[in-house]
Amino acid sequence: MLRIHFTGVDLARVRMAGRPDALWETILSFHRLRDRRDARLFGEWRTETRSRLNSETRMLGMLIPARGYFPDFLTPVEGQYGWDVALDALRGIRPERMRRELVLLGGGSGAGAVAGAVAGTSPAPRLREFMDGGTKHLPRLLGELRGYHRAAVEPYWTHIQAQIEAERAARGRALLDGGADELLASLPPMLRWRAPVLECDYPVDRDVRLRGRGLLLQPSFFCRRTAVTLHDPELPPVLVYPAASHLASAPTGGEAARTVHVEEQRQRTLGKLVGHTRSVVLRAIGDGATTSELARRAGVSLASASQHACVMREAGLVTTLRHGNAVLHTVTPLGAALLKGGAVAS
Fold it and tell me: Model-level pTM greater than 0.85?
């Protein structure tokens, strides 16, 4: 059982991640690749990924056991800012931290990792070589990560983003309706909010005390069955949990292809009505976007995104609110009905 203890300050500092975390998705997908369960959701993905894998993954297999502990340095907090930023952070890992976490890994898995390390259990020869080499093996590790990410995660990134956006929308509604208390209570069933403690089914018995640092909730497409958190209690607290919206949505297969086909038809029809670029911009707003986020999602300049949002606001398709130093664009019921090709709900 995992128990995360909140103070009043921690509740005020609970936040949802703004996007999928590139390295968490990559590392957790490596677990899914070796797991034969959930064939309906991941079976075709496994087949496609294995067919594309033509790079070495032995080092990944050594550092990421089938279950239990894997080093915290593999999932730096910078992963929430994108793949390149995450790899830069991993490249700059301190040798002493790397060795400390590899010693923990060499002692076993889960709680046994700590006990084994303390007892002086000798790690496997390949892991010992990695530990003794310090950061000199990092280039090889980064190369394996890149190759695996390109085969297993990158082709499905748009789908992963859509699932996380849907999860964020659901949790955001709970937060608006009832604050942090309602948000924590709305999380998937393996997470149970019994104020002031969030409990989770977990392979080992562990207590995490936030001590006023708050908690980052990171929904993940490839996380399954139980949430995951970092082992080091001094690192910024994060809870990676299964995005509920992905339970009925596989990343590949005939159904996904049909969905894409329907969406393409809708996009073409909408493009005829408002123009291709504005249809892309309207769809890119999703559940809300600042002007800079809108520009990035739609692949247009900041000025162009602002201009298109202004025109659609005047047409009643978009509403704009100031949010701190930025403006937040959201789709109106009329805009949502236009996107879905249906009537405005009464």
Answer: no
